[in-house]
Automatic annotation (TrEMBL):
The gene is pheS. Residues 109-350 form the Aminoacyl-transfer RNA synthetases class-II family profile domain. It comes from Sphingomonas caseinilyticus. Binds 2 magnesium ions per tetramer. This is Phenylalanine--tRNA ligase alpha subunit. Mg(2+) binds at residue 258.
Amino acid sequence: MSVQQLQARFDQEIAAAADLAALDGVRVAALGKSGEITQLLKSLGKMDADTRTAEAPKIHSLREAVTDAIAAKKAALEGAELERRLATERLDLSLPSAEAPRGSIHPVSQVMDELTEIFADLGFSVAEGPEIEDDWHNFSALNIPETHPARAMQDTFYMDEKGEDGAPMVLRTHTSPVQIRTMQKKQPPIRIIAPGRVYRSDSDATHTPMFHQIEGLVIDKAITLGHLKWTLETFLKAFFERDDVVLRMRPSYFPFTEPSAEVDVGWSMEKGRRVVGGSEGWMEVLGSGMVHPKVIAACGLDPDEWQGFAFGTGVDRLAMLKYGMDDLRAFFDGDLRWMKHYGFRFLDVPTLSGGVGA
């Protein structure tokens, strides 16, 4: 059989192949170890030079043509099979996955969701702001003088970039600048929480250079310290899910509030561990106070008309107190063993009706 006849026959067989199995049979018959085209290639060595020169191009051309035809037919059959499966197969997305989920929610993310759920029920909305701040929003607008220790290089991460006032930009040391930006953009009454990452030059078992903070701000008429105390009591009882949470407010000093108060909660020993609740001792959990009139005025509001309170606490510290962690640095080590132990299932969504704790 001539080369032309072989190519015509294989073209017919390839075109007639109804499925991948039949096509593979044609491939083996033509190009397999004992295939007809393979035998022709082997016969070239037995030909004389003139015959080989004449026949070799024809045989190699036949092999390439059949190989290309088989590849094209295979692509067509696979495409047709995919279209058939897409048209006929159905996947029930309501059924649970056969494999258990391997990921977990980080404790910081979980506590952020818990706090948002609690404060949303109290009428607070979530506000956000940039993590790279200018000097005015991070310090000056908050009544922090240029000589205040908080501006020192050992506490603040300064950047090479300069702000509009010529002062260096900083990695924000608290989320209080979000309060300033909110008061500048929004007319009172204001009720917001400002969660987010903040940065300070510190590192030990209870401090890290980057950590998470949440601050609250209320601006309205006739706001008093009593409103602040009630808000904090309600928040802490809901978060720790205990009715025996006792608060103690101690006079303190913050440049942006006046009067200012540190807030302690009572603790007790349970199973050899210190937990929030009871009154065996006191531990500090947050800072708070009435918004300083200078801060209100710096945002373009009349402090004689508008008053308010603010508070702030570390999200990581709250997670440690609630879920029994003793080293803040482990939060950011990326250790999968730690995450498997302290992480939360993705279905552990905090709700007030079901309890914000996982």
